[in-house]
Input
Amino acid sequence: MRLRIFFMLVLFFSVSLAQDRGQKLYQEQKYDEARAHYDLILSKRENDRAAHFGRGVSAYFQDEKETAFQSFKQALSTKDSMLQSKTLYNIGNMLYEQQKMDESLAFYKKAMILEPSDHDAKINYELIKRQMRKQEEQEQNQEKNQDSNKNDQNDDNQNKKQGNQKSEDQQKSENHPSEEENKDQDDTQQSRSAKGEQDQKKESEKRSIQNQETEPQHKSDRQLNAEAILNALKDNEKINQKLQIARSKVLKLEKDW
Output
């Protein structure tokens, strides 16, 4: 961008001030002498707009930007459309260097209106427009990234919060079971208790059956012994009865005699 600025200034000199001594000094990069030359001209012709333009160019290379800017402003009042167009172009360049993009574009646009064939003003105008669009896109992307990072951070915080809440709820649940959990536990305990009672009852019935199966065997032995004794008694009774009958017969016989 700067090379284009300087080239335009030299080009203007070569077209408009071919016989100007200041242009020769400028080409030799003797900026102090070139400025002194234009100051001398302005001391004699205060309204010489071309001399103001040349003074502004020399001051710019002396790094006296404010003096250059004021000299260009003086040159703007010229009736020469080309001189005015180049002055607008150079002011636009200086504003661009100060990062005053909107103002710079305005001066480039005025230069193009005055001199439609000024391709350099058109090129710089388009370059700055493109740069501004790119900068705007970058800012938008940065905002999107910031919003995205902010949303991600919020999501992380929310997930972390939910995780902490879940951990707290889980801890509370472990320390203080809910009514449903208590009910489930009670139901489980009751079920286990009922099952235990059923198992115990089954075991008791099983033992009872076993005892019943065992007891008949013992009772049979006792019954056998008792029956043997009864049978023996019965046998003795029968014998006694026979003896009594026999005695009875004997006694009867004795009486008959």
